[in-house]
Amino acid sequence: MTEQRTERINKYLAQAGICSRRQADVLIEQGKVLINGQVAKNGMQVSPGDKVELVGGKQQKAKKEIKGSAEKIVLAFYKPVGVTCTEKDKFADKKVLDYVKTKTRVTYAGRLDKESEGLMILTNDGNLIQRMMRGCEAHEKEYVVKVNKELTAEFIKDMGGG
Description:
5 helices; 22% helix; four-stranded antiparallel sheet; alpha+beta; elongated
């Protein structure tokens, strides 16, 4: 007998490439997510074979069926100076996702300041992002820093501490 795997509805929506888990929580709270025709509640579990729909439109009648996890995408992107690490910011001239166009929603692991440049990983795999970003994983990070003042022992200590 095979065991059916269930997952929380917000994770299901995120892995389908619809939105982030936090954004999914908002859609669920707004009553815009249905599981088997019933309005979903935060924390509900989705089983294989369940019908998940997203309700939208002005009359709340248009429905879009959500079909499980999207194919995993992992991209390497070299972020140039002047590009902001954000998905939505009306004041940002250039955003990371302006440079990367995919059919499936991707997000990035970590952030770089607007005035920084460097390699970033973009993916739709939330588990991969969690494994990369959790402090308990103790991933080493390396930075090259240019400074415009004298390097003192105190300055180096402060920079080493973040």
